[in-house]
Amino acid sequence: MKVGVVTFPGSLDDVDAQRAVRLGGNEAVALWHGDADLKGVDAVVLPGGFSYGDYLRCGAISRFAPVMDKVVEAAKGGMPVLGICNGFQILCESHLLPGALIRNDHRKFVCRDQLLRVENNRTPWTSAYAEGQEIRIVLKNGEGGFVADAETLARIEGEGQVVARYLEVNPNGSLNDIAGVTNERGNVVGLMPHPEHAVEELTGCGLDGLGFFSSLVERTFA
Ligand SMILES: NC(=O)CC[C@H](N)C(=O)O
């Protein structure tokens, strides 16, 4: 599949995401925040980083980037979209995902190897994992606390929209230990930790993140 990776001013992990896309067996296509079209890609990754310097709130300005009009339109049409960390924040700001991400409860930037449980493997980004599989990937952010109102939280729990949950410690105060969620349709996924940094042995971070990028080729979704 052709997977577009969007670079915003201040993106940090766009090149790592492109590499992970290729290691997962897909073609990576570089997209720029000012692009007016998606260059014929089949899926989109919004990478991690500090887009627009995190001004106002993380992701609050990126949401208005020209390319996001097309990403929102394509996501509503069913295109697989993965937002990693800052990308997750942008997806929440764009209302493609429920809830919001706020400052870590301890008010500090956190960087750690984080154990997660994959709760939902029925998305185009997680089908390579077994339901309940435990994976360890790096977490690094300042605004990673997932929050939602009580009704929304009950709905996403009830509908199985929690994609991954923190194990061992809750590193940021996220409600219900939520590390990642999907939309109702299941094509849009946001994840706070970074699977693109755990895709090859060379970095010493293991391979637990590769499934997010190989899932696309391992199954076909309607
Ligand atoms: N690693 C990231 O993508 C960081 C996201 C955002 N800048 C934050 O600190 O929360």
From TrEMBL:
Coiled-coil stretches: none
Localization per Swiss-Prot or TrEMBL: Cytoplasm
InterPro entries assigned: Class_I_gatase-like, PRibForGlyAmidine_synth_PurQ
Domain of life: Bacteria
Hydrolase found in the keyword field: yes
EC number: 6.3.5.3, 3.5.1.2
Record GO terms (molecular function): ATP binding; glutaminase activity; phosphoribosylformylglycinamidine synthase activity
Key word Hydrolase present: yes
PROSITE patterns: GATASE_TYPE_1
Pathway(s) the chain acts in: Purine metabolism; IMP biosynthesis via de novo pathway; 5-amino-1-(5-phospho-D-ribosyl)imidazole from N(2)-formyl-N(1)-(5-phospho-D-ribosyl)glycinamide: step 1/2
Catalytic residues (UniProt): C85, H194, E196
Signal peptide limits: none
Single GO biological process annotation from the record: 'de novo' IMP biosynthetic process
UniProt cross-references to Gene3D superfamilies, sorted A to Z: 3.40.50.880
Main location: cytoplasm
Catalytic activity: N(2)-formyl-N(1)-(5-phospho-beta-D-ribosyl)glycinamide + L-glutamine + ATP + H2O = 2-formamido-N(1)-(5-O-phospho-beta-D-ribosyl)acetamidine + L-glutamate + ADP + phosphate + H(+); L-glutamine + H2O = L-glutamate + NH4(+)
Subunit structure: Part of the FGAM synthase complex composed of 1 PurL, 1 PurQ and 2 PurS subunits.
Function: Part of the phosphoribosylformylglycinamidine synthase complex involved in the purines biosynthetic pathway. Catalyzes the ATP-dependent conversion of formylglycinamide ribonucleotide (FGAR) and glutamine to yield formylglycinamidine ribonucleotide (FGAM) and glutamate. The FGAM synthase complex is composed of three subunits. PurQ produces an ammonia molecule by converting glutamine to glutamate. PurL transfers the ammonia molecule to FGAR to form FGAM in an ATP-dependent manner.
Name the record gives this protein: Phosphoribosylformylglycinamidine synthase subunit PurQ
Protein source organism: Nocardioides caeni
Annotated gene: purQ
